[in-house]
Write a structure and sequence with these properties.
alpha+beta, Peptide Deformylase, 3 helices
């Protein structure tokens, strides 16, 4: 496994609409492993493939709940319910946080690393993270939709 370089705001790959994965290969599975290792190394809770320079519809998420590490290939949010505004940050926008309005509850359909179709309904931090990471796949950063932004230095 490898820790990959995380692209920062301003990199053109972060503004592209990511391509769907047609067929999962050994290369994609290694990418999933490397993305998870990179996310954990950076103390993140989610990472989308465009953030590591790969314009593919692949996301890893781990909000330290009962779901553990989630690997979402070609995720599509099929249901949004309610609304909640909360603070967000992003590994691609270091030391910047903002208040973002998101759906309170979502259902996402995706393919897992074994090419099985899955569906997951989430709320709270997991729902927020799913929406944030799916935005990356459409070339959107949280700073594009935040109602307010603030700069905070990372606490050690």
């Amino acid at each position: 496994m490898a820790i990959l370089d995380i692209k920062k705001a301003g990199d053109p790959v972060l503004k592209q609409v990511a391509a769907p994965v047609d067929r999962l290969t050994k290369w994609h599975r290694k990418l999933l492993d490397d993305m998870a290792e990179t996310m954990y190394s950076a103390d993140g809770v989610g990472l989308a493939a465009p953030q590591i320079g790969k314009s593919l519809r692949i996301v890893v998420i781990d909000v330290q709940d009962e779901n553990g590490l989630l690997e979402l290939i070609n995720p599509v949010i099929t249901m949004r319910e309610g609304s909640v505004t909360d603070s967000e940050g992003c590994l691609s926008v270091p030391e910047v946080y903002g208040d973002v309005e998101r759906a309170a509850r979502v259902t996402v359909e995706y393919t897992d690393r074994r090419s099985r179709r899955r569906s997951l309904t989430a709320e709270g931090l997991l729902a927020r993270c799913i929406q944030h990471e799916c935005d990356h796949l459409d070339g959107r950063l949280f700073i594009d939709i935040a109602v307010s932004l603030r700069k905070e230095e990372k606490k050690e």
